[in-house]
Write a sequence for this structure.
């Protein structure tokens, strides 16, 4: 987990823990288990309470907005990959790579359907492929072919990027091929002369 994610998790855990503790204390006071009359009166009578609440609320809003902005920027950065050339910067959308992989594997007859997600991590470009195979296929052979095909073509496609490509294949379903319709029946239907 990255340091940024740890900071966000810590901040939100702290805030929600404080809110939860306050709600438990108020509920205990209302149920008569503990007496919070003196602390509540002290807080209400505190002379700078409005300014303190205004400052705390403003600070929470600013921190939340800045964290949301940073998270959105990180999310946007993770959806693209880029590299510099002599002519300038080249940015490639990861969805374009995912579409390329989907079209690439349509030529494999053992594959009924393949959907991929591409992630850019510190280790390289990770491709998570979820595949539906026909029941007639040899799973070890076809998954190895899928990995080799995707890895080779993506490396060739992204030749300007010096990151290793890793392909993970998850077989999520194995399905039966639908029975092929009799070709003779089709031909005989077409050969019937038109009746007047």
């Amino acid at each position: 987990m990255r340091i940024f994610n740890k900071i966000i998790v810590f901040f939100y855990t702290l805030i929600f823990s404080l809110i939860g503790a306050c709600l438990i204390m108020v509920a205990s006071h209302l149920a008569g288990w503990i007496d919070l009359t003196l602390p509540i009166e002290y807080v209400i009578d505190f002379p700078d309470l409005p300014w303190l609440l205004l400052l705390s609320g403003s600070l929470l809003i600013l921190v939340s907005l800045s964290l949301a902005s940073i998270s959105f920027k990180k999310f946007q950065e993770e959806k693209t990959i880029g590299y510099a050339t002599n002519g300038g910067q080249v940015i490639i959308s990861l969805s374009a790579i995912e579409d390329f992989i989907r079209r690439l594997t349509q030529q494999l007859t053992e594959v009924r359907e393949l959907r991929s997600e591409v992630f850019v991590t510190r280790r390289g470009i990770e491709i998570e492929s979820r595949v539906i195979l026909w029941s007639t296929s040899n799973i070890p052979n076809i998954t190895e072919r899928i990995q080799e095909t995707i890895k080779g073509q993506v490396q060739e496609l992204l030749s300007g990027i010096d990151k290793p490509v890793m392909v993970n294949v998850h077989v999520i379903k194995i399905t039966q091929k639908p029975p092929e319709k009799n070709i003779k029946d089709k031909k005989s239907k077409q050969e019937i002369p038109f009746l007047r």
In short: The mean pLDDT is 80. The chain has two domains: 3-78, 92-175.
